[in-house]
Design a protein that fits this description.
Elements (H helix, E strand, L loop, with lengths): L1 E2 L2 E2 H5 L6 H8 L5 H27 L11 H14 L1 H8 L2 H14 L9 H5 L1 H13 L3 E8 L2 E4 L3 E4 L6 E9 L2 E4 L22 E3 L1 E7 L2 E8 L18 H21 L1 H10 L2 E4 L10 E2 L7 E4 L5 H21 L24 H21 L8 H23 L6 H11 L13 H22 E2 L2 H13 L11 E2 L10 H10 L20 H8 L4 H11 L4 H11 L2 H5 L2 H12 L6 H10 L4
Parallel strand pairs: 10-11, 11-13
Antiparallel strand pairs: 1-2, 3-6, 4-5, 5-8, 6-7, 9-10, 12-13, 14-15
Helix pairs in contact: 2-14, 3-6, 3-10, 4-5, 4-8, 5-8, 9-10, 9-11, 11-12, 12-13, 13-14, 13-15, 15-17, 15-20, 16-22, 17-18, 18-19, 19-20, 20-23, 22-23
Length: 606
């Protein structure tokens, strides 16, 4: 297989990103031209990955099990590329093929596992060949693997064969412009003639599209609920959306793109160029949107169904930022770090490595920019919540960029990229667009999250904790010199986010006219202490102390107590009160959490 008249490996060496594209991407932007450039670089990468997969299969005895040898796949793909290079490129760039390539190579290198024999993953190669032959108008007879009687043909659809073993095979014939699975049996395939609604036929489920219009350009994105490689880890079984669910997806996607085109035409145009598939994520609570993307799948994202068009637009921007940066990272090294999870990321509950903080900061650079632009388009009833989101995301992005500036792990390219990100911050300065009371709520939510993160993931030095506990028990001042705390991730620690929900409910307009708006019952249930704190009631600290009497390790309650006491020294070291109180309990010394916290706040230790 070749690209631009040379070998795949030679072609990949020739990509040099223009400075204008780099700077535009660093600023969180990147128009259609930059996105098209990234598609060309991703095509080279896919060719290299495909060649690596074919070579590794050839060198691995029995890798394809009962399926045709790898040489037949090579011949088919080469012929398809030569006959219909544009169609071949579109197929190879299908996001789910990128995920499959990465997963298969990791399985071959024993860095990933599957739910079936190795050949069931590697053999998907022959399904790719079948689609390539169909699009190129080439005849082909081959065999594909079956998962529970199903075979996915990427970018096309899923064949279902009844009464088959969990892991099996099926013959495929491509000829005269048609693809047939099990041609000498029940014979299933895409509908003929084309144009059947949603592409379904007996024994066949086609991919279904989400459609919108961006500046007169029709945009069509696959909503993938059937491809086993639509997730970021192990293959998934198909989970077909019902008619009503599909209608909700289509309506909200269309409205989200309309909203985005109205508030930020440049991003909408870039997204129209760069977005190809959305895979549904199930199991998210009503108040939370679960979304993700992968460097293996440029042009694709996963998300649960956002509850309204605005949050859908934010989700699209969020994941599109990740995909752009992921493609850039295939060209340039922006950081060199050991991957230690040590950074606070204001939008995450867990500590992050430098790479994760950079990715998150870039995503929230785009999110903040969205809210900045949307403020001028928000309806009056939705303005308070839009102001809150803008103020909160601006603060979070500023904090993350500040942390990145201090990290020595960024390369020269990474420093330049960060300068481009930081240059966006002045444009979001205090310009009177956020009311003081709303800005105060955003500050409260940001402080709440940072405090809760420190309570859960930072551990003071044990010797310092013991010294402080002895001083408290003796009635002495908290005058011990306390070393900086270290990051000790506690990934099992629960977060309720109930206070955040209360703030959002206060700002949400019940008469905004959006029938998709969340109700109070959709959010985590707050405690009486949470309600008191958010309402500014003076007895909030007492209420949290009562919660801690029942569960002295409750991280949410310790966080709330620190916030309720409003002692600035505690906010700098909120992990200390729980650690000292724990030490006192272990030594048999009874202590009120409020007394411990206020004692620490009065001394230099905090």
């Amino acid at each position: 297989m070749q690209a631009d008249g040379g070998s795949a490996s030679a072609h990949a060496d020739h990509h040099v990103i223009p400075s204008a594209y780099f700077d535009d991407l660093a600023a969180g932007r990147g128009g259609p031209e930059a996105v098209r450039f990234l598609w060309t670089t991703e095509y080279s990468r896919r060719l290299l990955l495909l060649r690596a997969l074919l070579d590794t299969i050839a060198a691995t005895s029995g890798a394809l099990g009962p399926l045709p040898p790898v040489d037949t796949a090579w011949d088919t793909l080469t012929a398809a590329q030569q006959r219909a290079p544009e169609d071949f490129g579109k197929l190879l760039l299908h996001p789910q093929i990128g995920i499959w390539l990465g997963h298969s190579l990791r399985r071959l290198r024993h860095r990933a596992w599957g739910d079936g024999p190795l050949w069931t993953d590697l053999g998907h190669l022959h399904a790719v060949c079948a689609v390539a032959a169909l699009r190129a108008g080439l005849p082909l007879r081959t065999t594909v693997p079956l998962r529970d009687g199903t075979a996915m043909f990427p970018g096309l659809g899923l064949a279902r064969l009844p009464d088959r073993p969990r892991w099996g095979t099926a013959e495929v014939v491509v000829e005269a412009g048609r693809l047939q699975v099990d041609p000498y049996g029940i014979g299933v395939g895409p509908p003929e003639p084309p144009g059947t609604p949603d592409g379904d036929a007996p024994g066949w489920q086609g991919l279904r599209a989400l459609r919108a219009d961006v500046a007169g350009r029709a945009v069509s994105v696959w909503l993938d609920d059937i491809d086993p490689y639509r997730d970021l880890s192990e293959p998934l079984p198909p989970q077909r959306l019902g008619k009503d669910e599909l209608a909700r997806w289509r309506e909200r996607f269309g409205r989200a793109l309309d909203l985005l085109a109205g508030s930020d035409p440049g991003t909408a145009a870039a997204m129209a160029e760069g977005l190809r598939t959305i895979a549904e994520v199930r199991g998210a609570p009503a108040w939370m949107i679960l979304s993700a993307s992968s460097g293996d799948a440029f042009g694709g994202l996963l998300t649960s169904l956002p509850p309204d068009p605005v949050s859908f637009a934010v989700t699209l921007v969020h994941e599109f930022q990740h995909t752009k940066l992921g493609a850039l990272l295939h060209l340039l090294t922006l950081e060199r770090d050991g991957g230690t999870e040590r950074h606070y990321a204001p939008w995450r509950n867990d500590p992050r490595p430098l790479s994760g903080l950079l990715q998150g900061a870039y995503a929230f650079l785009g999110i903040t920019d969205f809210w900045s632009r949307y403020l001028d388009h928000a309806p009056p009833a939705g303005r308070p919540l839009a102001e809150f989101e803008f103020a909160l995301r601006r603060r979070q992005t500023q904090e993350a960029i500040h942390a990145l500036r201090a990290d020595p792990g960024l390369t020269a390219h990474g420093r330049r990229f960060l300068r481009g990100m930081a240059a966006r911050l002045p444009a979001w300065g205090s310009d009177g667009r956020v009311r003081p009371d709303t800005a105060a709520l955003a500050e409260f939510v940001a402080t709440d999250h940072r405090t809760g993160w420190r309570v859960r993931h930072l551990a003071p030095a044990p010797d310092d904790v013991r010294a402080l506990a002895r001083a408290f028990a003796a009635g002495a001042a908290a005058d011990a010199r306390v070393a900086p705390s270290t990051v000790v991730p506690d990934l099992a620690a629960p977060w309720s986010h109930a206070r955040f929900g209360l703030v959002r409910q206060r700002l949400a307009a019940p008469d905004a006219g959006d029938r998709h708006a969340l109700s109070a019952g959709d959010w985590p249930v707050p405690s009486a202490a949470d309600r008191a704190l958010v309402a500014g009631a003076p007895d909030a600290a007492d209420a949290y102390a009562r919660l801690l009497a029942g569960d002295p390790e409750d991280a949410d309650a310790w966080t709330g107590l620190v916030l309720a006491l409003a002692a600035r020294p505690l906010l700098h070291r909120p992990e200390l009160p729980r650690a000292v109180h724990r030490e006192l309990r272990m030594t048999g010394t009874a202590a009120d959490p409020r007394d411990v916290a206020l004692w620490l706040a009065a001394g230099p230790a905090a």
